[in-house]
Amino acid sequence: MGPSHFCGMSINGLSKFVEIIMQTIDFYKLYISQVYFLYKINLCQVAIFS
After folding, report:
1. How far is CA 5 from CA 2, 11, 16, 35, 44, in A?
2. What is the DSSP letter of 27?
3. Residue ranges of the alpha helices (H) in the chain?
4. Which domain of life is it from (predicted)?
5. Backbone φ, ψ for residue 2 (5° rounding)
6. Measured CA distances, 17 to 23, 25, 27 (Å)
7. 6 DSSP 8-state letter
């Protein structure tokens, strides 16, 4: 268990962690854009019907 082995492990873990964060961010961006889209449609309907 040398320091180089530990370093490799932490870099590996870090890249996995970053990958998970990126996937989470992508998911939230998709979710937010959908919510925003629905919100815009609702605003348009309110503007039309009022």
Report:
1. 5, 10, 17, 45, 58
2. H
3. 3-49
4. Eukaryota
5. -85, 170
6. 10, 12, 15
7. H
Distance CA 45, CA 19 (A): 39
**DSSP one-letter code for 45:** H
Would you state the pLDDT for residue 3? 55
Structure tokens at 39: 């919100």
- Which residue's structure tokens are 């998709």? 30
Question: At which residue do the structure tokens 């854009």 appear?
Answer: 33
Amino acid present at 16: K
Taking only the tens place, the pLDDT of each residue in 26-44 is: 999 999 999 999 888 888 7
How far is the C-alpha of 45 from the C-alpha of 48, rounded, in Å? 5
